[in-house]
Amino acid sequence: MTQTIAVIGGTGKLGSALAWRLARAGQRVIIGSRTAESAAAKAAALGHGLTGMTNADAAAAADVVFVTVPFAAQEATLGEIGAHVSGKIVVETTVPLMPPKVTRVQLPAEGSAAARAQGLLGEGVRLVSAFHNVAAHKLAEDITVECDILVFGDDKDARTEVIALVEAIGLRGLHGGALVNSAAAEAMTSLLIFINKTYQVDGAGIRITGAMTPPA
Fold first, then answer.
1. Does any domain span residue 134?
2. Can you tell me the distance from the alpha carbon of 118 to that of 122, in angstroms, rounded to the nearest whole number?
3. Given this model, what pLDDT does residue 1 score?
4. Residue 119: which CATH number?
5. Would you say residue 26 lies in a domain?
6. In a domain, 52, yes or no
7. H or E segment to which residue 68 belongs
8. Residue 184 to residue 150: CA distance in whole angstroms
9. pTM surpassing 0.85?
10. Which residues constitute the domain of residue 17?
11. DSSP for residue 150
12. How many whole angstroms separate alpha carbon 129 and alpha carbon 153?
């Protein structure tokens, strides 16, 4: 099903990679940024019918909203879009990395960036958390990315819709359970950064092993 998807913070590395993959998969994609000019410029550079708007306008025009901003910008960005996402699926990708010690797990007081987003946006949003453990530069290439995408959220139907989008862009999405479980994937990001540095890995990811039966 074709939907209109906003990628908030879509001029960044992860946002632009996701926007590009989603557009190539046939979705209508709007890049959101603090200024419409920078969003439009990035959309033109990526092609595939992408358009650009301010974060607020992009969120208002979309059916599904991806939030792809650094942790330091999370509160301000959610404040921009909060009035436009009630009842919508919001996919929060934010990881609580706190430079310079990005190889150390530093979860916020709320328990996770996802829990913090839920508190900021309120219960009227169908919040899902995903894309914490995949390298943005690999998503930006026309390659097969050997990484599973763990998807968290208290709304199982919303998780299922996001997993369908994950699979549409060429990756395997897996239910990770309730939103509180997002803390595990968010913490894993710092571990993967440590592994990348220690073993000179070009974007370590997570792959779940074992034979799986699709959930009912």
1. yes
2. 6
3. 66
4. 3.40.50.720
5. yes
6. yes
7. none
8. 10
9. yes
10. 4-199
11. E
12. 6
